[in-house]
């Protein structure tokens, strides 16, 4: 590639701009960023086009300095920043009369010390509250007793000392600072320096409350000022003064440094796990995540204030929740909870965050289609970990969506067993959010609410006028402090709401069948530290069900919500109520009647001989037992529905009505069969089956009983293995095997492979049709580009199944 000297020298001699351009020849690779004395920003020379005259060409035998001398011969005060990509070093060199002769940013050493070398060893990426070093070479000796080196660190387009987005400091520390200055940086001259030769090794420390983001670091000496570096500053969970400080190293390794994880789905009695590739340390993730912050609405309205507020992880995490979904302007993911995914891919397709974030960034911030709660949460966890906020993905089973803030979810059944109508409220099979670790001094000075905070990027309700949720302290949720910021009341309902079941009669009236204060908020789960085992954290969110303490906290929370509704309390950032996109609101409800009184001696159970697999028939038994001393004649109405994971029905599969005699003191077993050919078309887009039974005592028809269970079908097995030893830059083969488990030909078969450090993007391959009972084996080449533990992910799609997944761990040398 050539250096276009005509435009370069014209701008260079004007001493007003800087240009960044690569010099690539043969196997040599290095970059120059050149400019004059008053430069303040980089610009890409490629913007000038490749048709410029007067090209200055170089050969592999030339050194960067020789090219610099030729490029700058028309200027009396020229310098260039040089990055040698092969040696992974960076430095500043200059010619003529400039007082600045070079700078070594020690990027590899600094990034290793700051736990950012996984992101890059070329670009300087540091964490606030922790010092880094650079070596500055001056053209003349430096006397610390007489000379002054003044440095400036600034971020954003409107840097200000009073906002903490600019800091002036120096060596020696004689730079006057305003009393209103915030986030003041510091520099010290290391003892090993040689100031008498002009070599200054400096220790520079961003404060622990510095706004995170991209910074420009410049230096001024003897009336000449030059930019030394562009660097990124992140939160620091290793620093005790940072609000995100996590004292436990195992937790830091898991919740900041681990690029791979597990997200739990399914239903509470059929918990399934999927591996997720967070990929937070891909090299362009810093610029992607900074752009996410820059695209938020608060930045558009007041960029100076927004950048200043990035010192606060409470603010930053709330901004991120609003940006992961596209319900707010510029958001990353568009949600879809139906069955139409045209223009994108089903949410179940995704296996990691990087492909989503890269697509959003590369498409100039067009929303990626489509996501659901676990995808929103997985992407948010990646962004949070990159920014330096400890983060983990959490799944709540039987998760309530309470739209009217009364801590009650109503479900309606027709007298033939199926759900009669969609409710304003709903109970999701599962719902996924994230927790971020941070202090909450805005809520209490005694650290009571510090620690894990719920953050939910799935767009469900508006909070302060935007679709976002949290941070809500887990401790506040446990204690029922629903008045606290942010959105504690909404999350409290997700794990604590009572469920009321109503039977809708033909005349429009309803009987209250049951009230359930136990079901909601089951098996709240996250990945364990240093293993893929599931960790149950339900006790962190709620008191033990069935205890007086649990009911006491529930009543306390409900009283708080009633006070807010009458204007006597704080909304806690709950904001306005809006309808979720997953259900339709009916403006009128049937007339409700009192709860039906019925004897308690009828016991209903569902039993399975084995875990059902998608592709096979579903077999289970309905077991009825009674303590009555007389024979009971019962009408048994069994209904099977396909269910979306949001708790809404997706279709009626089959209904069966029988009359049964229940003998005293004996069990009655009723077999239930759901053939594959009956359910399979629904399960392509649905996540579970709902089996419900309504039993009427024919001798006393006022006695009506309801029971239901949800079944999550296991996916048919698929395997992925790696053949041979994995070494960076060396070809490696992955092998995928899958057998058709059904008695029909599988058509439109595709395989998708992904994995950060193994593939730079998704690899999608079309496969031939697969006949019944036939097995397919496919091999893929890959070239690992990052060492360490990597996750290789595979996703299989066809006409009868969607998103059958597998993964394996690859250790790359």
TrEMBL record:
SMART domains, sorted: TGc
Keyword set, alphabetical order: Acyltransferase, Calcium, Cell membrane, Chromosome, Cytoplasm, Extracellular matrix, GTP-binding, Hydrolase, Membrane, Metal-binding, Mitochondrion, Nucleotide-binding, Nucleus, Protease, Secreted, Transferase, Transmembrane, Transmembrane helix
Subcellular location(s) of the protein: Cell membrane; Chromosome; Cytoplasm, Cytosol; Mitochondrion
GO MF annotations, alphabetized: GTP binding; metal ion binding; peptidase activity; protein-glutamine gamma-glutamyltransferase activity; protein-glutamine glutaminase activity
Pfam families cross-referenced by the UniProt entry: Transglut_C, Transglut_core, Transglut_N
Principal subcellular localisation of the protein: membrane
InterPro entries: Ig-like_fold (IPR013783), Ig_E-set (IPR014756), Papain-like_cys_pep_sf (IPR038765), Transglutaminase (IPR050779), Transglutaminase-like (IPR002931), Transglutaminase-like_sf (IPR036985), Transglutaminase_animal (IPR023608), Transglutaminase_C (IPR008958)
Record protein name field: Protein-glutamine gamma-glutamyltransferase 2
GO CC term (a single one): chromosome
